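Title: Comparing notes on inverse folding

I've been comparing how different people in this forum approach sequence design from structure. To keep things fair, I'm posting one structure and asking everyone to reply with a full sequence. Here's the target:
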């Protein structure tokens, strides 16, 4: 059995991507000296080194990597070794131009960047297996080796290829899925617009069409792409397991919904030995720490609740957004320890030393262009010490209060063409519900719609357009057994083939919600409507309204204006031991908070009025104890009640009663007992 934590690492992981091939070897010695000064425990190397390792076909140069791994080992630094299969060399593309991916409109990408890969291409597959075999044979039992880092961020920058090899591979998958072309016609609804096929050979990827294409074809292509990429990961992983037994294999995910939309991480989480993630702040004006917490919670959930590892984030600004602000003093530590609070057994960065050349020279690093006499370097050294003082939390698990249902496949389906409103965005709803839960100081687990939910008093369904019958039954059972459910509009509408469930909407959820939806009535751009609650109070919605017919549910809020005026807007269905809420419009932050307040009462979740706004409190527990993380994102000093005495690990001070956390600071209390 491979390890599930980096082999030989006895502390939290702290370090980053290390690309020494960009520097003369004399610099390497300075690097390791400074790594030791900063408390670096692990680095990721070789991720983009294929062209150096195999300068021409079948000719290898491992000398530099041998010297590098030995140097790191002598200095006690563990290594995550990359398989460089995200960056095949120029000579490879000369020999195999077909390995370059093709866009939906037929453009073939060129060499000269990275990640230009058609994952169906058999030459690419063989070459990737060959270089992986070489590396595993040579370094499989190297004493510095802690982790295999396969490829890099599968799913980006090319989310799908539409070439002829992919077409052939897609057809093979369709044959395996549907057996006969009649079955496929049925599932894809090809009776519509005369799209009927009489042979699998007639089917292509969903390339550019004059108007809306077949939605199920597009959805199946998303599944095909995800599965094909996963096959390539699994092939490399199996080689590594065979030639380097015991060493865990990972590939760095990008679970933030804003950063990758083509990978079904529920499926991928089951394939890696250790879940690792990359996270970058999207500086679009929203609260970046909330987005970070959400990505960390998704990552932990994909890891089944087990500890995971933040493999990349940034010390300061990135270089690939329209505007790339630096991080404020202290923000890097809040970010790093925010991930640790939510289950990461360490904090790593892209990258160790800032590049002088290439596309990422304006991306921050642990060691900036300005060297060691810089704010960033001083904060890196400080963070290294902080991370070191948290060693005891390794292996403990983050405790969640509630669950949010999320499914990448439903997201794919909902984003297909020609939906009732382009203003409805499932990701926006997931973000908004998450933010409302965050502001109630509730820690969130994400769950697949068919997962066991019995551990959660409250389950929130932000927008789950595609839901199988099994998922619907799962939710009904959950409520019957005492759970509280909150469902947002446009959920439970279609089955796994994007076919509308039979009967009135929402087919998969009619029973549990005790209602039907007769008609959707999306609102016009910027149109807002009011809804009136039990005590006459008003909330407001936009984007969506609909005609809800209660069939067992009670009406709690009613549309006050718009086409649906007088009809139910928010309902509650008491079913068995529990209750199921339904909200049929897009509530703003305040409205969501009010709704969640009602639902939290049903779920008997006490409000945390004692915790200040923007002060994050998260708990990790395990054999080594209970650890309370308090992250003060606000500009005010905060006081947080403690339920037991304890020791604050970053300052070494004793803590009892209340814990003072200065503005912008992080505290981690190990509770006594
Ligand atoms: C990704 C990649 C890294 C680097 C960073 C920059 O996460 O994995 O190689 O490009 O982005 O933010
Ligand atoms: Zn292809």
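Reply #1:
Here's my take.
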């Amino acid at each position: 059995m491979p390890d599930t934590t980096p082999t030989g690492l006895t502390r939290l992981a702290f370090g980053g991507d290390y690309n020494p091939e960009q520097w003369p070897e004399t610099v390497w010695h300075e690097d390791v000296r400074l790594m030791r000064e900063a408390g670096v425990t692990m680095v990721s190397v070789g991720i983009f080194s294929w062209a150096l390792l195999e300068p021409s076909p079948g000719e290898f140069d491992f000398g530099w990597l041998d010297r590098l791994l030995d140097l790191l080992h002598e200095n006690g630094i563990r290594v995550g070794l990359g398989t460089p299969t995200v960056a095949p060399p120029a000579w490879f593309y000369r020999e195999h131009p077909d390995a370059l991916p093709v866009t939906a409109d037929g453009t073939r990408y060129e060499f000269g960047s990275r990640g230009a890969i058609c994952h169906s291409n058999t030459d690419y597959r063989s070459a990737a297996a060959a270089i992986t075999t070489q590396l595993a044979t040579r370094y499989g039992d190297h004493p510095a080796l802690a982790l295999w880092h396969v490829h890099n961020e599968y799913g980006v920058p090319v989310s799908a290829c539409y070439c002829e090899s992919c077409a052939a591979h897609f057809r093979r998958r369709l044959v395996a899925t549907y057996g006969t072309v009649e079955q496929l016609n049925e599932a894809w609804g090809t009776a519509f617009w005369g799209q009927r096929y009489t042979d699998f050979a007639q089917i292509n990827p969903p390339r550019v069409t004059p108007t809306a294409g077949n939605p199920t074809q597009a959805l199946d292509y998303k599944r095909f792409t995800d599965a094909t990429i996963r096959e390539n990961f699994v092939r490399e992983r199996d080689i590594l397991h065979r030639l380097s037994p015991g060493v865990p294999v990972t590939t760095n995910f990008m679970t933030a919904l804003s950063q990758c939309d083509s990978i079904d991480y529920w499926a991928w989480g089951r394939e890696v030995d250790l879940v690792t993630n990359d996270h970058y702040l999207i500086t679009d004006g929203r609260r970046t720490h909330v987005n970070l917490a959400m990505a960390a919670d998704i990552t932990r959930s994909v890891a089944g609740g087990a500890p995971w590892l933040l493999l990349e984030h940034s010390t300061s600004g990135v270089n690939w957004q329209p505007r790339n602000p630096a991080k404020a003093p202290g923000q890097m530590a809040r970010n790093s320890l925010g991930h640790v609070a939510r289950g990461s057994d360490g904090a790593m960065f892209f990258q160790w030393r800032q590049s002088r050349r290439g596309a990422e020279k304006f991306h921050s690093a642990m060691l900036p262009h300005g060297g060691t006499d810089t704010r960033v370097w001083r904060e890196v050294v400080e963070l290294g010490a902080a991370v070191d003082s948290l060693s005891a939390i390794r292996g403990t698990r983050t405790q969640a209060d509630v669950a949010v249902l999320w499914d990448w496949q439903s997201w794919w389906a909902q984003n297909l063409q020609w939906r009732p409103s382009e203003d409805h965005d499932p990701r926006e709803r997931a973000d908004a519900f998450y933010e409302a839960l965050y502001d109630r100081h509730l820690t969130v687990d994400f769950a697949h719609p068919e997962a066991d939910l019995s551990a959660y008093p409250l389950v929130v369904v932000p927008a789950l357009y595609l839901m199988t019958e099994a998922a619907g039954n799962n939710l009904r059972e959950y409520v019957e057994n005492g759970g509280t459910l909150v469902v947002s509009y446009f959920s439970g509408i279609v089955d796994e083939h994007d076919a509308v469930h039979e009967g009135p909407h929402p087919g998969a959820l009619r029973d549990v919600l005790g209602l039907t939806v007769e008609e959707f009535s999306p609102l016009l751009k910027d149109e807002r409507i009011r809804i009136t609650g039990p005590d006459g109070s008003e909330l407001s919605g936009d984007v969506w309204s609909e005609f809800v017919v209660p069939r067992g549910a009670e009406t709690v809020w009613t549309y006050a204006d718009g086409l649906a005026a007088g009809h139910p807007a928010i309902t509650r269905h008491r079913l068995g031991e529990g209750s199921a809420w339904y909200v049929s419009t897009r509530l703003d932050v305040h409205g969501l908070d009010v709704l969640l307040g009602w639902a939290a009462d049903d779920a008997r979740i006490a409000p945390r009025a004692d915790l200040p706004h923007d002060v994050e409190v998260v708990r990790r527990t395990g054999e080594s104890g209970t650890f309370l993380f308090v992250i003060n994102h606000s500009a005010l000093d905060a006081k947080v009640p403690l339920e037991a005495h304890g020791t604050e690990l970053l300052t070494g001070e004793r803590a009892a009663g209340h814990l003072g956390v200065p503005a912008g600071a992080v505290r981690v209390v190990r509770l006594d007992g």
